[in-house]
Amino acid sequence: MESGGRWTAWWQKRDRERGRPAVADSPAARLDQLLGAVRAGFPLAPAAHPAGYRCSCDRVACPAPAQHPVSFAWQTQATTDPEQLARWLSRDPQANFITATGRVHDVLDVPAEAGRLALERLAALGVEGPVAAVGEDRYLFFTATRGTPVDEDEWWPSALDSTPDTMSEHPGLRWHCRGSYTLLPPAALPDGSEVRWLRGPEQPLPDPLRVLDVLTDACTEVGAVAEEQWLIG
Where is the DNA primase/polymerase bifunctional N-terminal domain (predicted)? Predict the structure, then answer.
């Protein structure tokens, strides 16, 4: 992690020279947060970012403004190399980042109302784990991945989650596993909201099925159940 510290120090020096405080939205502070995820083993790849009220990809009617990878090769790009992360951020200091799921971790993605309820219940049960909020709309519960079952038929893939315009059709729980991704804090969205940690990546990853039980109950109580109770991907 010495290289990560060296890059953070370099960014902080550049911020000072430009008269910019090292706050949450400065490159140095953002790099420091992203390195926390790298230390937890989360593979990262660069994503689009807000360009005014639009997406930096310039796609007309982008279905996921500032919430998708910049490259179709994101699964190959995703890395825990702090040097590569710093290079990406130096090329585009405003870049958001996604984390590829199904390798080290999965993500259970629920409406915020259900997420708040589940977070309280998981805390009461002593179940820890990283949790992020996507603006005021969604909560992301990071869990251990299902790994590689002996029976390949039990290892389902996520649909590539690059067209979240289907969110209105599946407003309940979404399970991001193999072949999917989620935004990683800190990330900015075009409406001015952000993706932020509620419990950081240093938390141990809990068993996904234990978290799933609590989340499905919470989604049912707030009336946010998708047709199949959850959508993979």
Answer: 34-209
